[in-house]
From TrEMBL:
Name of the protein described by the UniProt record: DUF998 domain-containing protein
A Pfam cross-reference name: DUF998
Record keywords: Membrane, Transmembrane, Transmembrane helix
Species assigned in the record: Amycolatopsis lurida NRRL 2430
Signal peptide location: none
Membrane-spanning ranges: 20-45, 65-84, 91-109, 124-144, 151-168, 174-191
Superkingdom assignment: Bacteria
Transmembrane keyword on record: yes
UniProt key word Membrane: yes
Length: 239
């Protein structure tokens, strides 16, 4: 029997995405507030131009709060990935999820101080960060609505990586903070425009794809046509 897609189901899907949006913004806000607090309390103790945010784990209250800030942003990114996936952008959602997982890995494996040799956990931290900060702009390019911001984030990532390659660690902290601003802006842009806002037609199509027992869309339409779906004025898939 062909199942119809009602506007009530479409509204339900949009309500779910609204809850995801609210949860994602809450996680991002928690992470941002903690990060700003860490910056403020350590303002006189370290040089922010040379010290990356990850290195604050070795300074004062940063030992307790840096990882919490990373986890909060990571959880926010994973929530955003769920919202993007609901809108049908599978690969973009996977890349956003990769960013979220990467942030959680950064929290678990801390970076060593700048003046010490690279450790095994520092190597994990460094390459997980590279993967995460690359994945998020690529997700923006796939979504196609935040291309300029995505290109800016990739350029900032290139500058940040270059500070390690050309032995310019004296400005690594400043380059990293510019990169973090772009990455956070991308996350907010995803919540506002990158897949969370779904038009009614697209919402009905998504609900239909997840509701019909048939996998083949053409077969779904043929079945729907034979059984007279929508005879009571209800919307049909593809209508």
């Amino acid at each position: 029997m062909c199942r119809t897609v009602t506007r009530g189901q479409a509204r339900f899907m949009n309500d779910i995405k609204g809850l995801i949006r609210l949860s994602a913004l809450a996680w991002l806000a928690v992470g941002l507030v903690i990060a700003v607090y860490v910056e403020i309390v350590n303002a006189g103790a370290v040089d922010p131009l040379a010290t990356t945010f990850s290195e604050y784990v070795h300074v004062g209250q940063g030992a307790r709060l840096v990882g919490v800030a990373m986890l909060a942003v990571g959880f926010g990114a994973l929530t955003i990935a769920g919202g993007v996936r609901l809108s049908g952008a599978v690969w973009a959602a996977r890349l956003v999820a990769l960013f979220g997982v990467g942030l959680c890995v950064l929290a678990v494996f801390p970076q060593e101080p700048m003046d010490q040799p690279l450790t095994w956990h520092g190597a994990i931290h460094r390459y997980a960060a590279l993967a995460a900060f690359t994945a998020l702009p690529l997700a923006g390019l796939l979504l196609g609505e935040v291309r300029r911001l995505s290109y800016a984030a990739l350029a900032a990532l290139g500058v940040f990586v270059a500070t390690f390659l050309v032995d310019a660690r004296g400005v690594s902290g400043g380059a990293e903070r510019i990169l973090l601003i772009f990455e956070l802006a991308l996350l907010v842009a995803f919540v506002r425009r990158g897949g969370f806002v779904m038009q009614p037609r697209a919402t009905l199509s998504f609900v239909a794809r997840t509701s019909f027992p048939c996998r083949d869309l053409a077969r779904q339409r043929r079945t729907c046509g034979r059984s007279g779906c929508g005879d009571r004025g209800e919307p049909r898939f593809g209508a």
